[in-house]
Design brief:
There is one protein chain. By secondary structure, the protein is an alpha/beta fold. The protein folds into two domains: 179 residues, FAD/NAD(P)-binding domain (3-Layer(bba) Sandwich); 201 residues, FAD/NAD(P)-binding domain (3-Layer(bba) Sandwich). The protein contains twelve helices and 24 strands. Strands 1, 2, 5, 6, 7, 8, 19 and 20 form an eight-stranded mixed beta sheet that branches. Strand 13 and strand 14 form a beta hairpin. Helix 1 runs parallel beside helix 10 and helix 5 packs antiparallel against helix 6. The radius of gyration is 22 Å and the shape is globular. The protein starts with 9 loop residues before the first strand and ends in a 34-residue tail after the last helix. The N terminus and C terminus are likely disordered.
Length: 443
């Protein structure tokens, strides 16, 4: 084992402070092993609830916490704010954007994923995804501003554009956003606005495939489809988006004017494959060995959305939070054994605790594989699971109180329009310039 000072040489370097990276770091906490966690952002983020920030149900601070606070209890863990641009494997160094480098003995890559625009990255400024607080605030700004402008609009065509919202992608993110926007619009307009009518709102959910929620059993997808239709969501399947600009999107030859577009049509892994000089597999994810190490390079391990790991039947594991957390905990245990001279031969095994999506108030779906659940009970279970997964007790308490209050009052406490057009406070973009969503490099 190395005897270097941990502030000049890290025995284990973890890239990314998402679900996987944090689980691995916590597993190595107080172990006597020097650990450095690198992330381009200073906070960890509970992404499954980011759509609630975008729809004014929660504030960013409710689902985010500084990484230093999360890991500050562990004396052997150092946190570093930095952006990775490359990996020098022969030299055992991580290259950072500021020109510095970080040596490692064991490298853990947990850099997550970013939204995939399928070669149309010019659409990003007009159709942000939901990976960062910045993107959620931008969507919230566009949603709330559209209602305010529609209240004053006298031209029916302008008002129709302002009250048309499009979500691209019929996976869990798209379904959750569509339901949340529809419920936000119906309640807010009915109680707080006078010149516009809730029936004027057009929430459009677009899926290129034959149905929404393809990862779920058809009966659950049908339930979600019917529920969304009942609350005013217009679902379009079997059609692909061919163009997006500041005020509209195109479905083949049809142009639909809209004030807010949300992208949830697919993800791709971070650029880790390029850093390592290896070929990325499905969605750019890197194939790993059963112990989550990189083939031929046992001192590099890859976990979370960046890893293309397989289950016992040889099927790729999904890019889900529960997979990432289990991989992080497993890898921490394996590294503890390895770095203390003990053997650890058990491969990673994923224990499926169910796949879920919330559709609206009192409506959610759960797929446990052998059995399913939908409706009010699934909604309560979804709430319990997501509260439990929050990073600490304080966040769990805050979110629980706000959800209970919102359940009985239907009021959303985070309906604030940012004066800087939903941009981060330190943004240097001019006010009238579209803000481009930042790709997650170390998330």
């Amino acid at each position: 084992m190395s005897t270097h000072d941990p502030y000049t040489h890290s025995q284990v370097v973890i890239l990314g402070a998402g679900f996987a990276g944090l689980a691995c770091a916590k597993g190595l906490g107080n172990s006597g092993i020097s650990v450095t966690v690198v992330d381009r952002r200073n906070h960890n983020l509970f992404q499954p609830l980011l759509y609630q920030v975008a729809t004014a149900a929660l504030s960013p601070a409710d689902i985010a916490e500084p990484v230093r606070r999360t890991l500050g209890r562990y004396d052997n863990i150092r946190v570093m704010l930095g952006e990775v641009v490359g990996i020098d494997h022969p030299g055992h160094r991580v290259m950072l954007k500021d020109g510095t480098s970080l040596p490692y003995d064991e490298l853990v890559i947990a850099t997550g994923s970013e939204y995939n625009y399928f070669g149309n990255d010019e659409w990003k400024p007009f159709a942000p995804g939901l990976k960062t607080v910045h993107e959620a605030r931008l969507i919230r700004h566009r949603l709330l501003s559209a209602f305010e402008q529609a209240e004053r609009a006298t031209d029916p065509a302008i008002r129709k554009r302002l009250l048309t919202f499009a979500i691209i992608g019929g996976g869990p993110t798209g379904v959750e956003m569509a339901g949340a926007i529809s419920e936000l619009a119906r309640h807010m307009i009915q109680h707080d606005f006078r010149a516009i009518n809730k029936h004027e709102v057009d929430v459009l959910l677009i899926e290129a495939g034959p149905r929404i929620l393809t990862a779920f059993p058809e009966k659950l997808a049908a339930y979600a489809h019917n529920y969304l239709t009942d609350i005013g969501v217009r679902i379009v399947t079997g059609r692909s988006v061919t163009g997006i600009d500041a005020n509209s999107l195109s479905l083949d030859d049809e142009r639909i004017e809209t004030s807010c577009i949300v992208w949830g049509a697919g993800v791709r892994a971070s650029p880790a494959a390029r850093w390592l000089g290896v070929e990325g597999g499905q969605q750019g994810r890197i194939r790993v060995e059963p112990d989550l190490s990189l083939r031929g390079q046992p001192d590099i391990s890859i976990i979370g959305d960046t890893a293309l790991a397989k289950d016992e039947d040889g099927k790729p594991l999904p890019a889900l939070a529960q997979v990432a957390k289990q991989q992080g905990a497993y890898l921490a245990d394996r590294l503890r054994h390895k770095l203390t001279g003990r053997t650890h031969t058990a491969p990673f095994r994923f224990h499926n605790r169910g796949n879920t999506a919330v559709i609206g108030r009192n409506a959610a779906i759960f797929d446990f594989g052998s059995w399913t659940l939908k409706g009010r009970m699934a909604w309560f279970l979804w709430a319990l699971v997501h509260v439990y997964l929050l990073v600490n007790f304080e966040k769990r308490l805050l979110v629980s109180i706000q959800w209970i209050t919102r359940y009985f009052t239907r009021q959303r406490s985070a309906r604030l329009i940012d004066e800087n057009h939903g941009r981060d406070d330190d943004s240097s973009d001019p006010p009238d310039k579209p803000v481009e969503a930042q790709p997650a490099i170390c998330r």
